Amino acid sequence: MKKVDLSLAGNYLHESDGLDELEKLLMSDDSFSITSMSCAMSALFGRIGNVLDIDKAIYDQLSNTNKFYLVRGAFPDREQELRAFILERFYKFVS
Q1: Are 80 and 19 in contact (CB under 8 A)?
Q2: What does DSSP assign to residue 27?
Q3: Considering the entire predicted model, what is its pTM?
């Protein structure tokens, strides 16, 4: 399996931010949060797309929650890194 770089790209995630907040944000129903999470998930696909065996057009049709579960299933040993990356990208888009 190829290496996947999930290093954080900015200073948008802080130690005090709980990684368990991701579930609430994934299930948010306001359009701004949905759009921001979609941007975060698109950034995630940019990092992992060459490793996943899924076409981007199909990935884009999934809900944000299903995208997270798909990626978490593909990288079960890196769940905390995935959560941190997604939250960091989400916070970047909302700031």
Answers
A1: yes
A2: T
A3: 0.86
